[in-house]
Amino acid sequence: MMMMMMILPTGSFHYLLPPENNFQEIRCANVFEAMRKCCLKHKPVSLVCDGYRLEPRVFAPATDRPTKDTSG
Q1: Rounded distance, CA 2 to CA 45, Å?
Q2: Domain layout of the chain by residue ranges
Q3: Is 8 helix (H, G, I), strand (E, B) or coil?
Q4: What phi and psi values does residue 29 have, to the nearest 5 degrees?
Q5: 31, 34, 26, 37: which is closest to 61 by C-alpha?
Q6: What is the C-alpha separation between 53 and 39, in angstroms, rounded?
């Protein structure tokens, strides 16, 4: 884990931890699908699409939504 150092106006310093990475691919599904469709059409002439996988993606469900209480 990388820490950043912040120097305070008093000349002292303290360390800041970076924010936790909570990237969830499902949140970007529409963008990934648009990129995939574009690359299906332009991959032969596009450097951007070089190495981009063209098969549809399957994503894990979002994990930051509250769970429903089904206990009654």
Answers
A1: 39
A2: 25-55
A3: coil
A4: -55, -40
A5: 26
A6: 9
Please give the distance of CA 18 from its chain centroid, rounded to a whole number. 16
pTM of the entire structure? 0.54
The tokens describing 30, both together, are 């529409």
CB 21 within 8 A of CB 57: no
Q: Each residue of 26-57: pLDDT tens digit?
A: 888 899 999 999 999 999 899 989 888 889 88
> Residue 6: enclosing H or E segment and its boundaries?
strand 4-7
Alpha-carbon distance 70 to 72, whole Å? 5
